[in-house]
Amino acid sequence: MASHVIPTIDLSPFITATDYPKSQVPGTVKLGQSNGHVNKNSISISKEVVKKEISKACREYGFFQIVNHGIPVDLMNYSLELAKTFYALPDEEKMKRGPGAPTQGGFKKNPEHLPDRNEFMYIFEPGSPKNVIPENPPQFKGVLEDIFPRYRNLASLIEDIINDCLGLPPNFLKEYNDSRSYDHLLSLHYLPASDFENSGKVEHEDGNIVTFVLQDDVGGLEVLHNGEWIPVPPAAGTLVVNIGDTLQVLSNNRFKSATHRVVRPKGKTRNSYAFFYVLDVDKWVEPLPHFTTDIGEPPQYRGFYFKDFVQGRVHDRLNPPARLEDRFCIKHYAISTSG
To answer: Fe2OG dioxygenase domain location, by residue (predicted)?
Structure first.
């Protein structure tokens, strides 16, 4: 039984009142619960309290959940319903929205040799020539184009908060991460577990800056913390946030990129969305001097171009090693302290 709980943080002090769904109330945080609604046990909070909680979560878990984030809960739920409708279509219908090239958006299925049992769809910003969005159900395109910029704006806000949590100069991360060309939304559909295997997504870390995950009510997301797999139960109105490898390297391990996985339940399909706020592939990544030379600490990683890291991860995903410990990950760039 897991003894830890991924923290849930109320983002309302950073969100204007006009951004709230009716079910969310600005300026409050729940005690001991993790859904999107407030009750009589709520207390007023400030921006500084939110920053402290996010900073603590990034140091200890690399994961946290947010409520009162400004994205309408009804819109999030509707996007999940439409995805469920799409994935229930016959394969031949879904494949009509497959990509014309590997870099394009559209529907894809994992090859049989991969351990992950899911099918998925890449969505890029509205108007992108890479998009291949389903025409059935007919509302799908409009909903995805509505929610995409909301996720992007929220990611920019989280980046600003993390910038302050790390004590970086104002707008440092925003100026460093100054290209939005590679942001994308991933719709995921997981098949029910069999009697022999239940892997939806094998254990991994995200390589980007920050990720949002929207789950349906099935569950299955788990985070590794001190050798223990912690479930992240779905909760109404909640978005899961996790830190990527890029921030772990930039902060020289101040903030962690946590290992996580998806375990498929028996008898149920699972739908989720993951929004990836991604660095430009040509960007150079290394521990910032704020956390190394400026304070007399050695760098924990050697520098690399982000595109080389991405290419290594893609190759590893399509050609998974026999042992998990041999997979390509950020440890590839870690500087050994032995000897």
So the answer is: 181-279
The confidence score (pLDDT) of residue 41 equals: 34
Alpha helices in the chain, H assignment, sequence order: 47-60, 73-87, 91-94, 140-165, 172-176, 245-250, 306-318
β-pairing, 239-243 vs 63-67, is antiparallel
Q: pLDDT (tens digit, 9 = 90+) per residue, 267-310?
A: 999 999 999 999 999 999 999 999 999 999 999 999 999 999 99
Task: Name the region of 283 (left: φ>0; alpha: ψ -120 to 50; beta: rest).
Answer: beta
- In sequence order, what are the beta bridge partners of 109? 119
Six token digits for residue 102? 């590997």
**What secondary structure does DSSP assign to 224-235, as a single string?**
EETTEEEE----
Q: CA-to-CA distance for 105 and 91, rounded, in angstroms? A: 17
Burial (CB < 10 A; 0-12, 13-18, 19+), residue 250, is: buried
Radius of gyration of the chain (CA): 20
- Name residues whose C-beta falls within 8 Å of residue 236's C-beta, 6 or more positions apart in sequence: 35, 36, 37, 73
pLDDT tens profile 154-189: 999 999 999 999 999 999 999 999 999 999 999 999
